[in-house]
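Lab meeting minutes (informal)
Scribe: AK
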Amino acid sequence: MERKKILWIAVDIDKTLTKETCWDEEQMRNAEPNMDVVEWVRERHAEYHHIVIHTARQHRYYQVTIEWLNKHNIPFTSVSFQKMPCDIMLDDKTINPLNSNWKKLSTMLSEQ
């Protein structure tokens, strides 16, 4: 039986895990999760892939970011406040989760 490769998947927060861009702490606390993306992340985590939350948010928003992720039961391996190398990057600037084409990633991952 062939083992699947464990991937490092970077997932942005604003307009990816959330439905909108958050500019201040109040918006960050009250952001509505994008449940299609949240479920996709949960599925990949259940397949033992590493989930890195990556964001361009300022580091002073670390605590509110962690609280929001925990509140919505979003699994993650780590959080990065800078862009980083990874196998897959899910971000509104790369693979846009508001466009249904991003769901093709699931097919690609299952074909590894």
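Next up, CB showed the second protein from the same session:
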Amino acid sequence: MYPGHWSKVFPHKPAVVHASSGESITYQQLDDRSNQLAQLMWQQGLRKGDHVSIFMENNLAFFEVILDLNMILFIFSRLTVILNNWER
């Protein structure tokens, strides 16, 4: 389900919890932040079907970016220089 649905049903429940730090982001925060990023990308001229690559650390912001890219239906690929053995 789209996070916007869960932000209405469980706005204050954690949507994502970082396993190492215990840091979390609620459904409402996740929905709000991914919407803001989607609007920013739209204002910059990115549109459905555009190709986007993201290069970032594994953290909570990663989920915001992924949801944003899915909202606008971008074609994206994730770039990283550090992979665990199971990710290779």
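CB comment: The radius of gyration is 14 Å.
No objections, moving on.
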